[in-house]
Each structure stands twice: as C-alpha cells, then as structure tokens.
Input
Amino acid sequence: MLKLLKRCGVRVVRIQGDSMAPALLSGDVGVFIQYRSRFLRPKRGHVALIDHPRLGMIVKRVTGFRENNEVDVRGDASTSTPAIDLGPLPANRVWGRLLLRLNGQPKHSGSPAT
Output
C-alpha cells in the first residue's frame, strides 16, 4: 500500500522530534503530497517534507524564497535547528507539503489506574 501511495506522490512519515511543535509532535504521522506540477508549488507557511543534503528527510516550515530559486525553511519550536544552519535550500529539495496530520500521542482519560 505504501509503495502505491509513493508512486502516486504521497508519503506517510512518522514525526521524530519536536522541532515542529506545536503543529507536529514527536509520534504524529504526517501525510505529504508531492509538489509535481506548476500549480502545486511550495508557498510561504507550508509545512514541507524536505530532502536536506546533510540531514536527510526532514520536516520544516517554508519561510521565504530567494531570487536564485532557493527556499528558506525553519522549525516552529524555539529548540529547532536554527534556520541559518539549515541554510537556503534549492527549491527542488522541497519534496512536498503536509496534507494531513494524524495524532500519534496516546489519549489519557481520567486518572491513572492504581
């Protein structure tokens, strides 16, 4: 099933770490749709799946664009890797945008059993 989704331009990713908190928390599942056409491009504010040259696949927010077809990104949390360390990235490194977030945090009701 995941191979079929990937072929259709959809990736399902388990979020690791809290660099995108509170929008995404560690353990959440993100469903991303690939930027494939001229109509579906990164926009400022998108939560994006990025193929970072040093860090591999990461999830960050698109914060801006540069004249030389580069994109600026950052995490939402204050503890996230600083944007300057992520560097401006070639736009083709931005794989796709978040389509759906599934909460991976367990729900607790009432007080714990004793």
